[in-house]
Amino acid sequence: MKKMAAKTAVRKPRADAQRNREQILKVAKTAFTRSGESISMDDVAKRAGIGAGTLYRHFANRDALLAAVYRNEVEKLAAAEKTLAATLAPTEALRAWMLLFVDYIATKQIIAPALNAMVGGPAKLFDSSGQMIKDAIASLTKRAVESGDIRDDLEPLDLLRALVGVSNVASGPGWVESAKRLVDILMLGSRPMPKPSSKKR
Description:
The protein is an all-alpha fold. Helices cover 70% and strands 0% of the residues. The chain is elongated and about 70 Å long.
């Protein structure tokens, strides 16, 4: 008998499985926000409206889930760079992305204690995400500079440092609103300096 050759194909995740994963990440982010590292996998499954078995098929343990939540936030932030650049004017795109970055910092602060509790710590996770963020703001800043709406000596990392600095000295829940106000201050201060008048009296 002739053996039939097995056909192999790359299978895409089923739509329902993808929806489950997205729902799990959404619920887990909210859960970590409210309960920190004390949240359990069973709690996440219950809040997501799925069985524990479904949750464990996607994420082997709580550390894997936590890392996925953080990575998902970074990937959304990086992907937003292309979307904003394609739909908004250069300075508007840069401002919108910086506002999203403030939300990202808030998420990182919220889940940082739990990330630090992971075996081996979150250093590698932060290292890989940092480059994605730097690349995104560098691209948006370059576009804004080339448009002539932003001064050409602006360093993208200076914008990030300013926003991160606000979060590091935060002493209350109002720091997010303060950081978002800072975005507009930074955008205003990033405009090109007016050229001195050449007219003679």
